[in-house]
Specification:
By secondary structure, the chain is an alpha+beta fold. Helices cover about 45% and strands about 20% of the residues. A five-stranded antiparallel β-sheet has the order 2-1-5-4-3. Helix 2 runs antiparallel to helix 5. The longest helix has about 35 residues.
Length: about 180
């Protein structure tokens, strides 16, 4: 019996349709995941009557970026922005890993770290509601509702709606496999 080190490669060359099918399957999952996130952020923004709802996705150890947003006005776009390197650390990550929900009615009145306040100001945030998206392997992302035009009192129902949305995302098979 002869062993060929690149036998998997040769098999895929003999059956290019298998490689194409895998690519198409990944593409379909990505489209389905993206559509779920898009619908979720749009519904949340409308239900909560806020200026912006975003998904902050972690692609590395506490490093991530805004990958989806739903906006009341294009002027509030922060798509692609990343968090401040020195502000979100292991301490904050541990809180969100434990299920922390953070509701701030007015960032100017809330006792928060200066770097956090400056970061929120830089994104035009005046009120902030953040819930974690937790999957079995850890913190996948953060779902955040931002009100930019003024303070916003978050009701228990607002928080429940956000938590339910985060749980829906966390249990979707396309997200679990991403």
């Amino acid at each position: 019996m002869q062993i060929h080190p690149h036998s998997e490669f040769h098999q895929s060359n003999n059956h290019p349709e298998q490689g194409l099918q895998k690519l198409l399957d990944r593409l379909v999952k990505s489209i389905e995941r993206n559509e779920l996130v898009r619908q979720t952020t749009n519904q949340l923004r409308e239900l909560l009557q806020v200026d912006r709802v975003v998904l902050y996705y972690f692609y590395g150890q506490w490093q991530g970026q805004v990958t989806f947003e739903s906006l009341s006005s294009q002027e509030f776009s922060i798509l692609g922005s990343t968090g401040p390197d020195d502000c979100f650390n292991d301490e904050y990550a541990a809180l969100y890993l434990a299920g922390r929900v953070r509701a701030i009615a007015d960032i100017e009145l809330e006792p928060i770290e200066l770097c956090h306040r400056d970061f929120l100001r830089s994104m035009q945030v005046r009120a902030n509601l953040v819930v974690p998206i937790l999957i079995p392997r850890g913190l996948w992302g953060l779902l955040a509702a931002h009100h930019c035009q003024g303070s916003h009192d978050w009701s228990p129902l607002d928080i429940e709606i956000m938590q339910t949305a985060a749980q829906t995302l966390a249990t979707d098979h396309n997200i679990l496999e991403s």
